[in-house]
Amino acid sequence: MDSLISFGAWLRRRRKALDLTQQQLADRIGCSLSALQKIERDTRRPSRQLAELLATHLNIPENQRGLFLKIARAEKAVDSLDSLALTSISESAPISDSEFRPYSVPLPLTPIIGREHELNLVKQRLREPQSRLLTLTGPGGVGKTCLALEAAHQLRDTFRHGACAASLAGTSSPAFIVPAIADSLGLNFSGATDLREQLLNFLGDKQILLVLDNLEHLLEGIEWLDDLLERAPNVKLLVTSRERLNLRAEWIFEVAGLPVPATIETDNPESNSAVALFARRARQTNLDFSLAADDLPPLKRICQLVDGLPLGLELAATWVRVMSVREIAREIERSVDFLTTTARDVPERHRSIRAVFDHSWNLLSEEERSTIMHLSVFRGGFTRSAAEQVSGASLSLLSSLAAKSLIRRDSTGRFDQHELIRQYARDHLIRSGQLDDVCDRHLAFFLSLAEESKSELRGSEQLGWLNRLEHEQDNFRAALEWSLRHEGSTDNISPAVEQTMQAALKLAGALYLFWRRGGKWSEGRKWLQRALTQSARLPVTRERVEALDAAVLLAVEQADTQAARQLAEENLTLTRRIGDPYDFARAINSLGLVFWKQKDFDTARSYCQQALVEFRKLDRPLDVADTLRALGHIATNQDDLEPAQMYLEECQVIFHEHHNQIEAHAALSDLGLLAYLRQDFPTALSRLQKSLEFFRELGQVEGASLALNRLGDVARCQNDYNKAKQYYEESLLMHRETGDRDGIPSVLHNLGYVALHQGENAKAMELFREGLAIHIGMGNQAGVAECLAGIASVLTMQGSVEDGACLFGVAEALRERTGASLWPANRIEYDRSLESLRRSLDDSTLAASWADGRAMSVEQATARISDVYQYR
Question: What is the mean pLDDT of the chain?
Answer without folding.
Answer: 88
